[in-house]
Hints:
six-stranded antiparallel sheet; disordered N terminus; 26% strand; alpha+beta; single chain
Amino acid sequence: MAQEAHGGGRPEGGRAAAAPRPSAPAPGRSGASPAVRGAPPAAVHYDGRGQVLDARYNHGRYYAPVGTVARTLPGEYRAYYHGGAPYYFSGGVWYAPRGAGFVVVTPPIGLTIAVLPPYYSTVWVGGVPYYYADNVYYTAAPDQSGYVVATPPDDGGQGAPPPDGSADPNAPGGGSYAQGAPQGSDLIIYPKQGQSKDQQAADQYECHNWAKGQTGFDPTQPNGGLAPGDADRAHSNYDRAMAACLQGRGYQVN
């Protein structure tokens, strides 16, 4: 099971006030994205807050670079532990304690989490789906009811089409990957009770597991893990189960 504690470790109260603008990366630490196996060095693009664009797989999100120091954690973080050491996760970025504050780090391979980042890209390598965000790859860990930080695959930063030959038609470059939530459903979900992005991701993940168990349809797998003739009806049943679960948790589902 993923070891998760809202507000565990050093911070008090389960969540900290919104962090101030992070400082530049610590001396001796580069703000550039780490190299990917087989991929040429990528140009580094910054936004006005010192965050770096993650353009791999056309991910298109900005993140604080590794080595960035912050006095406090962002709000809505989750605390995890690996090898007895605390790590804090918020918006796809990982933090670890350093001195009186925190520093952005790369999480250790093997660390297990309960939910994926709010934004990620699904990348297929060797017929296996990897979930990618901020230079970190995750794979499903059903035996631990979550996801695990994985060794980066040797794909040259390009990915490959899903094994059934399908692809996201809206994805640039031929659709070799897809962005979205792990549920992969066709639903449009609105939080009616002010739920945070992390809370919505957790609710979607739990409802996804429940709907998958009820219908046998797994949208993270080609054809939902079913024979082609059974997939359409099972997908419809899955969407109905997801909608019922999420509505019960205070979401509007269209």
